[in-house]
Amino acid sequence: MNELIISDKRELSNIQKAIIYFFIYSFLGWSLEVIFAMYVERRFVNRGFLLGPICPIYGIGALILIGSLRNVKGNRILKFIIAVVAFSVFEYIASYILEVIFNQRWWDYSNDILNLQGRISILYSLVWGILGILFTEKLHPFVRKKVEKISLSITKATQRIIINVLVIIFVVDEIFSILAHLS
After folding, report:
1. What is the pTM of this model?
2. CA–CA distance, 70 with 177 (Å, rounded to integer)
3. Which of 46, 47, 71, 97 is the most buried (most CB within 10 A)?
C-alpha cells in the first residue's frame, strides 16, 4: 500500500514548474508594487493590470531570468548585464504592447534621467540588474527548493488540480480585466 502512495507522487514537470513559478513571482511582484504604492500614496492601489493579486510582468520576467541565467554560474557581472538587458527589453516591449492595446501606461519613467520614451530608464534598469542577481542567487533557489519539497508531498492528481485551478482563475481574471480596461 505504501508503494502505491509513493508511486502516485512525483516531481513537477518543467512546464508545471514554470506555471507555478509564474504564479509565485507574479504574486510577489504584485505584492511589492502594492507595498511601494501604499508607501508613496498612503493608500491601497492595485498596481497591476489584472483585477486579481498578480502582476504577470513579474512572473514572465522571472521566467525570462531563470531561462537566460540558467547556465551562468558565479559570474555576477555577467548576471547583472544579462538581467539589465533582459528586463529592460522585456519592460520596453510590455509597456509598448499595453499602450497599443489599451491606450494606457502602467508605468512612466519620463521624469527619470536617461529614459527611453518613458518606458524604461537607466535607474530602473540598474535596479533590475541588482534584483536579478539577488533573485538568481537567493530568492529563486529558496523558492525552487520549497516548490520541489511541496510537489513531492502531494499526488499527481492534486498537482494537476492546483495548476488547472490557478490557470482557470488567471484566464477568467484576464478576460474580466481586459473587458474592464477596454470599457
Report:
1. 0.84
2. 33
3. 47
Beta bridge partners of 155: 9
pLDDT digits (tens, 9 = 90+) for 93-146: 999 998 898 888 878 999 988 988 899 999 999 999 999 999 999 999 999 999
Question: Which H or E run includes 115?
Answer: strand 115-116
Q: Which grid cell sits at 58?
A: 513579474
Each as own residue / partner, the long-range contacts of residues 96-102 (CB below 8 Å, 24 or more positions apart, any chain) are 98/49, 102/181, 102/182
For the beta carbon of residue 16, count every other beta carbon within 10 angstroms.
17
Q: Would you tell me how many other CB atoms lie within 10 Å of the CB of residue 9?
A: 14
* Residues 152/9, Cβ–Cβ less than 8 Å: yes
DSSP3 helix / strand / coil % (the chain, rounded to 5): 70, 5, 25
**Residue 168 and residue 70: Cα distance in Å, rounded?**
29
